[in-house]
Recover the amino acids of this structure.
């Protein structure tokens, strides 16, 4: 509970321009392309918050802003804070657990969509009485 309270207080103190503009020193230059993998690789404990009115997504590690992504009506681009000097990669055990969880979600989605497609196909193939083919 302590974490959530401090996080919401810090987030409430940020102004719109702090969520939109790159803070400057200690940050990578703006880049284009897929953002999730790059940020997860460095800031693996960060959580994302989407600000729809600003067309911005921000990643927070604890209460620190570590990445910004522009999207929507803005030109898509992103930047993130540089790695700290004492940075450690995500431990192998946790990385594998995350991958397994994501794969399980993908498998469940595929199974549900395949079942839905089979039900739709089966209902179209049912005959409703004799049909004459001319």
């Amino acid at each position: 509970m302590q974490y959530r309270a401090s996080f919401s207080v810090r987030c409430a103190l940020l102004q719109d321009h702090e969520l939109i503009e790159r803070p400057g020193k200690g940050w990578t230059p703006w880049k284009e392309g897929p953002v999730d993998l790059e940020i997860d690789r460095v800031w693996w404990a960060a959580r994302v918050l989407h600000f729809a009115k600003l067309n911005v997504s921000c990643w927070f590690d604890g209460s620190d802003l570590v990445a910004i992504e522009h999207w929507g009506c803005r030109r898509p681009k992103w930047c993130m804070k540089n790695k700290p000097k004492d940075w450690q990669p995500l431990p192998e055990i946790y990385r594998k657990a995350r991958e397994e969880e994501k794969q399980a979600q993908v498998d469940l989605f595929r199974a549900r969509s395949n079942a839905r497609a089979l039900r739709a196909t089966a209902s179209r193939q049912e005959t409703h009485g004799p049909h004459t083919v001319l």
Summary: The beta strands are 47-51, 56-61, 64-70, 77-80. Residues 91-126 form one domain. The first strand starts at residue 47 and ends at 51.
